Amino acid sequence: MQGDGTHTSGPRSGSHAEWFDRVRQIGESGGFFKRLGAAHAALFHDDGPTLLVTFETVTDIRTQQADELPLGYHVARDRGWSHLCVIAAEDTWYRDPAVYRLFDRLDDGDFFDQFDQVVFYGAGMAGYAAAAFSVTAPGATVVVAQPQATLDPRRAGWDPRFTDMRRTSFTDRYGFAPDMVEGARSVYVLYDPEQNLDSMHASLFARPHVTLLPCRNLGRDIGTALMEMRILPSVLSAACTSTFDERLFRIFYRARRNYRPYLENLAARLISDGRLYLAALLSRNVANRLNAADFRKRTSQLEQDLAVMGKRLPPVPHK
Fold first, then answer.
1. 229-279: per-residue pLDDT in tens?
2. Contact at 8 Å (CB) between 72 and 119?
């Protein structure tokens, strides 16, 4: 990923500079657009007393959104809400004095006080940032997917990932994300407990006003998974209307029953645990419901393995 405006190959045409020009026009037509040094930018669209703040990356926006506009922009625009998007062109964890200054100015100018409801969202490194910068909006709701609490090796030296960030300071301003959410009204941390490192980061957020939402077998990229299940807009919408909670998330999360990556992870986990009977039942169910040839093939193999063990699946019930 490049932040200098040079051309990058991918599913979209045009340089980053051309893309930023388009985003600039949107911001200047109904809010503001600011370049924050070479690696970041801020887009604000003013459209109502509810504010959705998202942290997103150029790569995700340009590859995951059909019109190459931020996810948060779509969620807010479609509902008549305001939106602030802090965009990263590189993997910086938003640890940049230019980003600090943006939130300093917003805080000093009582920017967040003009809104009745403020919600922060991000995933992964953007989840870290959403939690860290939410300190400038006391009373906000924070929804983050598999966030890192910090990459400071003295507090998270057990995480061997992201070694390029080891020299970046996570101990100065807006540093340790779990401390920065102390003033939030409510915080929701989504993570896969099967991903040990993500689970350890999530545990550092544990506070009385923090709800940990385990998403077992969802994998290493929960933000993308929620988008592919088409439930992330619903999650953010509920958070912006103060109706989001663990019960409602579980209702949304039922969509995993038709989400192939989740089902594949679950089947693989059952097989690795030696629970072949349950794996066979799951594979047969998915093969029949989703007409999935790979699950049908897996069912056949598992039935053969069970036959060797003297076990057999019950017949498929007639409708």
1. 999 999 999 999 999 999 999 999 999 999 999 999 999 999 999 999 999
2. no
